[in-house]
């Protein structure tokens, strides 16, 4: 069973930055890890995914391109650097592991970390 521990959420003013981190323990067979988010009252959506072995970004949502960057420290820890945040980025952010290429299927999920952006 894979366990994911997220950190780095919080509150920030518009235009600010936050960095989320996620560390995985346990075995995962698939190469991709990444982040989803769920804004208040909306469905969950993919944010960004990375190949944890090659350090290659596989997919980034159009809404965050140029502002968010996914990276990895090693095969078990991924980060999401979020810059130029807007109130529309307010959401619960979830780390996911054991995912397919663009996160269409993931087998392991974190508990979530709240990101709140005020105007």
Can you put this structure into words, describing what you see?
With 119 residues, the chain is mostly beta strands. Helices cover 0% and strands 57% of the residues. It has strands at residues 3-7, 10-13, 18-25, 32-38, 45-51, 56-60, 68-74, 77-82, 91-99, 106-109, 113-118. The strands form two sheets. Strands 2, 4, 5, 6, 9, 10 and 11 form a seven-stranded mixed sheet that branches. The chain starts with a strand and ends with a strand.
Task: Give keywords.
globular; 119 residues; mainly beta; four-stranded antiparallel sheet; seven-stranded mixed sheet; single chain
Computed Rg? 13 Å
What class, by secondary structure content? Answer: mainly beta
User: Can you give the helix content as a percent range?
Assistant: under 10%
**Oligomeric description of these chains:** single chain
Distance between the termini: 40 Å
Q: Could you tell me the number of beta strands? A: 11
Mean pLDDT: 95
SSE string, helix = H, strand = E?
EEEEEEEEEEE
Q: Largest sheet, described in full?
A: 7 strands, mixed
The 3D shape can be described as globular
**Could you name the ranges where pLDDT drops below 50 across 5 or more consecutive residues?**
none
| Count of separate DSSP helical elements | 0
Give the strand content. over 45%
């Amino acid at each position: 069973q894979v366990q994911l521990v997220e950190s780095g959420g919080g509150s920030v003013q518009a235009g600010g930055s936050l960095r989320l981190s996620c560390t995985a323990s346990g075995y995962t067979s698939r190469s991709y890890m990444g982040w989803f988010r769920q804004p208040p009252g909306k469905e969950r959506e993919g944010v960004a995914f990375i190949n944890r072995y090659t350090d290659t970004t596989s997919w980034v949502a159009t809404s965050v391109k140029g502002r968010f960057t996914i990276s990895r420290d090693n095969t078990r820890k991924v980060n999401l650097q979020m810059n130029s945040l807007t109130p529309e980025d307010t959401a619960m952010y979830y780390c996911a592991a054991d995912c397919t290429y663009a996160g269409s299927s993931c087998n392991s999920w974190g508990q979530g970390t709240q990101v709140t952006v005020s105007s």
